[in-house]
Structure prediction request, 98 residues.
Amino acid sequence: MMIAVIACAISIPATAGVAGQWTDSAALWDSTCGYCHEKAAVGPVLFGRNLPRELIDTWTRNSHGRMPPFTHSEISDAELAALTEWINRQPAPKATAP
Ligand code: HEC
Prediction:
């Protein structure tokens, strides 16, 4: 088990973490999802949309288009559930002036 955890930690991209290390959902978001979904706007805005948990689970666990999959060893089910609630509590971003 320990070997598997270490092997995952080495092979996963620098942006992904290891399940159990996240102290809160904001930290998980900032280091794992926020780059694409907030800062770089590679992925669609998720805040302020009250997305169903199943949708976030499916997208996170499977690879779709340009979004990478995240395994249970990177983000646990409990962490993903907490993250989903956190995402849905965030206000929609304000439109930026043209
Ligand atoms: C490498 C960039 C990247 C990262 C990291 C990433 N995503 Fe995505 N995500 C995308 C892209 C791009 C799409 C849209 C699919 C496409 O265009 O190929 C997407 C789509 C989604 C969708 C569907 C949105 C909709 O409108 O239906 C959800 C939900 C989602 N991502 C959640 C997450 C969560 C939660 C994380 C963190 C655990 C995350 N993503 C990390 C790039 C990323």
About this structure: The chain has four helices and no strands. The domain at 23-89 is CATH 1.10.760.10 (Cytochrome Bc1 Complex; Chain D, domain 2). Residues 32-33, 35-37, 42-44, 46, 51, 55-56, 59-60, 64-68, 70, 75 surround heme C (CB under 6 Å). Helices lie at 2-11, 25-39, 53-61, 77-89.
